[in-house]
Structure formats: C-alpha cells, structure tokens
Design a protein that fits this description.
alpha+beta, globular
C-alpha cells in the first residue's frame, strides 16, 4: 500500500469509493434512507474537490487502485476517512490516520466509532444530524 497526496484527477474514484463504502460498510448501522442522504447518487464534485484540496488529503493506493482516503483540516478536524469495502480491516484506515498525526476531532459514524475508540479517541457527545429531512446518529469524538 502506498500513501500519497490527493490530486483533482482522483476525484471520480474518491466519490465512487465514498458512495460504495457508505452503502455497503455502513449498511449494518443505518437505514437505506439514511444511507441515501449521506451518500446520494449525485454529489457536488466541485465542492468535494475544493474541500479535499483545502485540507491535507491523503489517498491510499494498491496497484494503482484507490483503496482509501482521509482528509484533515488545519484546525485538526478529521473530516473524512473512508476505506474501500474490500479493504476493511486490513490496516488502511490505521495507515491513513497514522500519516495524519494532527487529528484531534472528528464526527464518527456508528460504524466508525469502534475504530476510533480502539485508537484512544473518546466520545464527547452523541448527536443527531439532519440531511434532507432524515436524521442520522453520529458522535463528536476527540483525542
């Protein structure tokens, strides 16, 4: 596995990985309607690209295939951390987090919470976020 900086040309693969990971990996913890508003078929590609470029964004690759990504804002907020469904539990998320040592705050899904807790993060509070009229549970977590 190789880690490298995000480039705008990665965006189509990143968006596909994001949608697929949410709809498969997180399906055990969220309903179909929650997954659909979290990772809809249509995403604002320009907004995603701008955000990923504004943050320190790392991409994990294996044999030229993007298998994960994570991005960290200047203030230490770990905005996104997603791993391809076929690469779950194989150290991709750990490698990405280890390469972003300044992370100190995130909003973790029900699915991601155990990963962060094993890494020494703790829950500040549970919260309900609303997207297009649908509520989703996540956790404000800090290290």
């Amino acid at each position: 596995m190789k880690l490298r900086a995000y480039q705008s040309g990665d965006l189509p693969d990143i968006l596909n990985l994001f949608r697929d990971a949410v709809h498969t990996v997180c399906a055990r913890d969220y309903t179909r309607s929650q997954l659909d508003v979290w990772a809809p078929a249509e995403l604002d590609a320009a907004a995603w690209d701008a955000s990923l470029l504004a943050h320190r964004t790392l991409v994990a690759e294996e044999n030229g295939m993007i298998i994960g990504f994570a991005d960290l804002a200047e203030d230490g907020y770990l905005d996104r951390l997603y791993v391809h469904r076929d690469w779950q539990g194989r150290g991709v998320a750990t490698a990405l987090c280890d390469a972003l040592p300044g992370a100190r705050l995130t909003h973790a899904s029900l699915t991601a919470r155990p990963f962060f807790e094993k890494r020494g993060w703790h829950v500040v509070r549970e919260q309900q976020v609303e997207r297009r009229g649908v509520r989703l549970t996540n956790f404000v977590m800090e290290r």
